[in-house]
Amino acid sequence: MGLEQDLMTRSGSKCELCASTDNLSVLEVAPSDGSIDQAVLVCFTCKEQIEDKDKMDANHWRCLNDSMWSEENAVKVLAYRMLSRIASQGWPQELLDMLYLEDDIKAWAEAGLSAENREPTRDSNGTILLAGDSVSVIKDLVVKGAGFTAKQGTTVKNIHLVPDNSEQIEGRVNGTKIVLLSCYLKKL
User: Fold this and answer.
1) What's the pLDDT at 22?
2) Domains and CATH numbers, the chain
3) E strand segments, the chain
4) pLDDT value of residue 144
5) Which of 18, 20, 50, 181 reaches 20 to 30 Å from 160, CA-CA?
């Protein structure tokens, strides 16, 4: 059986968030390994609002009053994330206060929220940097602890974004993996 069929069986062919039976599809709850334990079956309306904050209708999410009590951790994680997004409405905060998550499940839920709320990493010119980009160093930078200086004009390929800090990137210079401040870099 495929993932979608397994989720159909688990959910009784209903959206696991709002119980709709129309236009159902699989949604992996990031970060996900692709397993049934990290995926949910959702309707088009729920999926659209999860993926596009501009289409958010807070009243639609009153359905979480029931689904937040699901036995499935992925459903609880999505309920936590959506209630957190609209907590300023008042009633969602009351539901959040009642929702209990084990520490590892709460960490999973909050990991998705921090990724959503993360500011983009920008270079010295304000250009958004993405993982895998190549950048150039715009001034000589002394690399403490490594005993060398990253010279102006040095190219750093295949950069990685630092999850907790939008002002830093990771990359290899002279074969050494280092953290660089994005304000001293220019996207190539």
Assistant:
1) 93
2) 3-117 (no CATH), 121-187 (2.30.30.40)
3) 25-28, 39-42, 121-122, 128-129, 135-137, 141-143, 148-150, 155-156, 160-161, 168-173, 176-181, 185-187
4) 83
5) 50
